[in-house]
Design a protein that fits this description.
Elements lengths: L14 H5 L6 E7 L10 E6 L10 E6 L11 E2 L15 E5 L6 E5 L8 E6 L1 H8 L2 E8 L5 E7 L9 E4 L6 E4 L13 E4 L4 E4 L5 H4 L5 H5 L6 E6 L5 E6 L7 E6 L7 E6 L4 E7 L5 E8 L3 E4 L5 E2 L3 E6 L5 E6 L4 E6 L7 E7 L11 E4 L11 E2 L2 E2 L7 E3 L5 E5 L4 H7 L1 H6 L2 E7 L6 E3 L5 E2 L9 E2 L16
Antiparallel strand pairs: 1-2, 1-34, 2-3, 4-5, 5-6, 6-7, 8-9, 9-10, 10-11, 12-13, 13-14, 14-15, 16-17, 17-18, 18-19, 20-21, 20-26, 22-23, 23-24, 24-25, 27-28, 29-30, 30-31, 31-32, 31-33
Length: 473
């Protein structure tokens, strides 16, 4: 909570106030056993990231879920900076949707932040019967005290981009946010900006296609998305569709600039390694333009003759100066200076594993960016399997945390050794003055050493909120 504020709600008054918040000491992240050989429930791990602590870089608590094969994925809060004006609200519950089982777990992180406990479980039938929705993905708290969760499918596994509303006190399913019959053909992530009366949502793919791993034929069959859906925030109507074309296939994480007055943002499109900027036009509608393209690499010894970068996670620093994203196939994280919003400038890059490492099975035949294949990374004696994927930036923008799991079925397909050895969490030191990224060689959380065996660790959250969970009004 901002120290200069008395009687205010959770979070911070502005993004720049958040940058002055305390340094992160613990992080929460879901750990997944689905699609591994270990028949154990997924769990929420609490990791100590305080360098002054005797348990630094260790998992200090594990909260197992009551069911098997949920595929915990992303998480959100019951209250955040969008509730800052409401002194009765507390950020004390973490919302954990399960991508595959369609359960939603509500975790009490307020009673003992170091040892979260299960508060409530919302069964899949609640989503199926009350909303005709399934496969929940992103959870955002709303200024009115409710929680909104985007979905990817209907109960039969077809694509369906709708939104489930939860009551912020009881966590009961209230119903759909979108109007009847107005769900998008597919869903994934979303972000809202009330000052412009807008919400944007993206499209991954139909859950029944995702469940079996990635098949390029499914893209041709129309089972993956390529649109940004634009919603009227007040009426809940879908008012526009921005078709990004083949170049924008599989648009995943969508981020408005943090400044609540800004009418633009960026979306990372996985399949062809592109980033699009979306913006409000002088007419008042919305448009999108491609501003970054990571070239494919011509390769030998891989499933296809060309390897895309596969942009997966993307985030923006709280001062709206830097954009970060991970290339899950090529194996690098990039930092772009976005001071000139239409012309992002590459300011930092670091390779951490990936599919084109010099001692791996893939030979790069033609590369428009690199002169040689990057070497494998070994941190504290551990060879990094898989590739950088989920990102989280410290409030002050100086530390970038990264984990290596994308989604268990794709992990198994593209990085089988990652599933065998477990994922890792790494830390990148960020130069916030000139730009630049450097791996911190003294930081490693090895999820291959977990008590029940190697596990896949996914999205990171700080107890006080962060640049991907908080929205300012």
């Amino acid at each position: 909570m901002a120290s200069s504020c008395s009687g205010c709600g959770p979070g911070y008054k502005t993004p720049l106030d958040a940058m002055k918040g305390p340094r992160e000491k613990i992080v929460y992240l879901p750990c997944i056993y689905r699609n591994t050989d270990i028949l154990k429930p997924d769990y929420l791990a609490t990791v100590d990231v305080d360098p002054k602590s005797p348990s630094f870089c260790k998992v200090i608590h594990r909260l197992p879920m009551p069911n098997l094969k949920d595929e915990l994925h992303h998480s959100g809060w019951n209250a955040c900076s969008s509730c800052f004006g409401d002194a009765s609200r507390k950020r004390n519950r973490l919302i954990l949707p399960s991508l595959i089982s369609s359960r939603i777990y509500v975790v009490d992180v307020g009673t003992d932040p170091l040892a979260p406990r299960l508060h409530k479980m919302v069964e899949p039938t609640e989503l199926f019967w009350k909303c005709d929705l399934a496969n929940p993905h992103t959870a955002h708290c709303l200024g009115n005290g409710q929680i909104m969760i985007s979905t990817m499918g209907d109960p039969s596994g077809n694509g369906k981009g709708g939104f489930v509303l939860l009551d912020g006190e009881t966590f009961e399913v209230v119903g759909n946010w979108e109007l009847p019959g107005d769900a998008a053909p597919m869903g994934y992530d979303f972000w809202y900006q009330p000052r412009h009366n807008v919400m944007m949502s993206t499209e991954w793919g139909a859950p029944k296609a995702l469940a079996r791993g990635f098949d390029p034929a499914d893209v041709k069959a129309g089972l993956y998305g390529q649109r940004i859906n634009v919603w009227d925030w007040t009426t809940h109507k879908r008012v526009q569709t921005l078709d990004l074309g083949e170049e924008g296939a599989i648009p995943l994480e969508i981020r408005f600039l943090h400044d609540p007055a800004a009418a633009e943002g960026y979306v990372g499109c996985a399949l062809n390694g592109t980033v699009f900027r979306f913006y409000k036009t002088p007419k008042g509608d919305w448009a999108a333009e491609r501003v970054i393209k990571v070239p494919n690499k011509k390769v030998q010894g891989w499933v296809l003759p060309e390897m895309p970068s596969l942009i997966t996670d993307i985030l923006i620093s709280l001062d709206d100066r830097f954009l970060y994203f991970s290339n899950w196939l090529h194996g690098d994280i990039r930092q772009y200076d976005i001071t000139d919003r239409r012309h992002p400038r590459l300011a930092g890059q670091v390779f951490l594993g990936g599919s084109i490492i010099s001692d791996g099975p893939v030979k790069v035949l033609e590369d428009k960016e690199l002169k040689s294949q990057p070497p494998q990374r070994i941190i504290k004696g551990k060879r990094i399997q898989g590739s950088p994927q989920m990102l989280q930036l410290s409030l002050d923008g100086k530390r970038l945390y990264v984990t290596t799991s994308l989604y268990s079925a794709w992990d198994k397909q593209f990085y089988p050794e990652l599933v065998k050895e477990g994922s890792v969490m790494m830390q990148i030191d960020v130069d916030t003055v000139k730009g630049g990224l450097k791996l911190n060689e003294d930081f490693l959380v090895d999820f291959g050493a977990e008590p029940d065996g190697p596990v896949l660790a996914h999205e990171l959250r700080y107890p006080g909120g962060d640049c991907t969970s908080d929205i300012w009004l």
